[in-house]
Design a protein that fits this description.
Distance between the termini of chain B: 33 Å
Number of strands of chain B: 6
Radius of gyration of chain B: 17 Å
Mean pLDDT of chain A: 94
Shape of chain B: globular
Shape of chain A: globular
Number of helices of chain A: 7
Strand order of the largest sheet of chain A: 2-9-4-8-5-6-7
Helix content of chain B: 10-25%
Helix content of chain A: 25-40%
Number of strands of chain A: 9
Largest interface: A-B, 74 and 83 residues
Low-confidence stretches of chain A: none
Oligomer: heterodimer
Mean pLDDT of chain B: 96
Distance between the termini of chain A: 14 Å
Strand content of chain A: 15-25%
Chain lengths: 243, 212
């Protein structure tokens, strides 16, 4: 089960708070997967009490409350608050993935050049849930075939979202990777498999953190998802957990 | 608490934080699971004054009792006048029928009774309720209710209190997940104000959220 509680002393009335939370959730906690199971109890709540007061003016003892943030997606304060809340929620959600039961890897999958955000998110979600992708990552296997397989069976995509001849898939080292200087490891380019340097792939897959980059080549939209690998330990933990 | 956290995860646990004004939190030991004899498993997060609140919930068709009770409370109050969040770990209070709903409501009401100065506006309790743990078991509700006033007495705004509270919501998690930050807003009315945002989360398995 996922539970999360956010608290801020910014003055955000309920309508704005609700819409800001939905935006943040759809780009953070709704974009993570450990084992593909959706709990009966998942809840993310946010409280905003407006207690951060305006600084008192010279000669004044009182501290006034700041005015409320309007529920207006074009308002600069709303936009800034949305960015803060979304970034913060992503960092918090990523901590959950890092603590996935038995996880040894933290993976970001970035699907881009998709016809719609929904298409990109659906594909990222399917990759993140695939047991065979997840076990390949645990086994440090650059098995792009399993990634393509997951992309190919993603349900409810728009017409023309996936065109095999336009697909490019790469593994990308993270900023602190020893492999960073070697750049992205291209696995498939415009539907054609690349000759993979197995030693390089093995070095890259030693890292705890990894990025999978998927270009559909069929549009301009994108989505990110964060997930972990699937290990023996996951089975051990959940084989012992009793209802 | 730190001794139970794997060395590889220590780097994700903050040693300090900047927390929002007007909030106090506590983590208290109840022993929801009889085997838990020392770790906090009741978290209480409180705004010193009634505040705005919003939430998103699982879209699983089997919605646990605390999900239903919390959604009802927020709808009744239209997200206004909320005082806090009460959470137990160790038992999810899910698929527990009418008794489960009564237990979740009792948690919300008991938590709200810690603030007797709040006016009775006829809208019921003012607390979001959450539970996490095994499915299909009833809460040891009396043990929980008996500790809520102690949880209220333990409320504090220190980093240590926030960390203990984050620990109290954990189940199979190996470390408490807590973050805080400060930010400013560009509008002229807000330009000189430094705001704070804090968050805690839990989850290690049964994780593929789709909340709305």
């Amino acid at each position: 089960t996922l539970l999360a509680i956010l608290c801020t002393d910014a003055p955000v009335p309920p309508p704005a708070l609700s819409s800001l939370l939905k935006i943040a959730t759809n780009k953070s906690f709704n974009c993570i997967s450990i084992d593909g199971d959706t709990s009966t109890n998942d809840t993310l709540a946010i409280l905003a009490n407006g207690a951060a007061a305006l600084p008192s003016t010279p000669g004044s003892q009182s501290q006034d409350s700041a005015p409320a943030i309007p529920n207006d997606p074009k308002d600069p304060d709303y936009i800034a608050m949305s960015r803060v809340l979304t970034d913060f929620s992503q960092r918090l959600a990523q901590l959950v993935v890092r603590d996935g039961e038995g996880a040894t890897k933290f993976v970001e999958v970035h699907v881009h050049h998709a016809p719609s955000v929904a298409d990109a998110k659906a594909i990222a979600s399917t990759i993140a849930r695939s047991p065979l992708v997840k076990t390949a990552l645990y086994g440090k296997d650059a098995n792009w075939g399993r990634i393509l397989c997951a992309i190919g069976y993603t349900p409810n995509l728009s017409e023309g979202a996936v065109v095999p001849e336009k697909m490019t898939v790469s593994f990308v080292p993270v900023d602190n990777s020893a492999s960073r200087g070697e750049g992205a490891l291209r696995l498939l380019v415009n539907g054609e498999p690349e000759r993979v340097d197995e030693e390089r792939a093995a070095r890259l897959l030693q890292d705890e953190d990894l990025k999978i980059d998927v270009s559909l080549g069929t549009g301009m939209e994108e989505a990110k998802y964060w997930f972990c690998d699937f290990s023996h330990e996951y089975v051990t933990i959940n084989g012992d957990y009793r209802t | 608490l730190d001794s139970s956290i794997p060395e590889s995860k220590q780097k994700y646990v903050p040693t300090s934080g900047t927390y929002p004004k007007g909030f106090k939190v506590s983590g208290t030991h109840v022993g929801v699971k009889p085997a838990n004899t020392k770790f906090p498993d009741l978290a209480f997060i409180v705004s010193e004054k009634p505040c705005s609140a919003a939430a998103v919930f699982t879209t699983n068709k089997f919605q646990a009792a605390p999900v239903q009770i919390s959604r009802s409370m927020l709808e009744a109050r239209k997200g206004e006048g909320v005082r806090g969040v009460i959470i137990n770990s160790g038992c999810a209070n899910a698929v527990t029928g009418r008794r489960g709903e009564e237990d979740a409501l009792a948690m919300g009401e008991k938590a709200s009774s810690c603030f007797p100065d709040d006016p009775d506006d006829g809208l019921g309790h003012r607390s979001i309720v959450m539970s996490t743990g095994v499915i299909g078991q009833h809460l040891p509700i009396n043990k929980i209710l008996d500790r809520i006033h102690q949880a209220s007495s333990n409320l504090d705004s220190s980093h240590s209190a926030w960390l203990t509270t984050a620990r109290a919501i954990c189940t199979t998690d190996t470390f408490p997940k807590l973050l805080s930050t400060t930010f400013t807003l560009p509008g002229s009315a807000h330009r000189d104000v430094v705001y704070s945002l804090a968050g805690m989360t839990k989850g290690a398995g049964m994780i593929h959220p789709n909340m709305a």
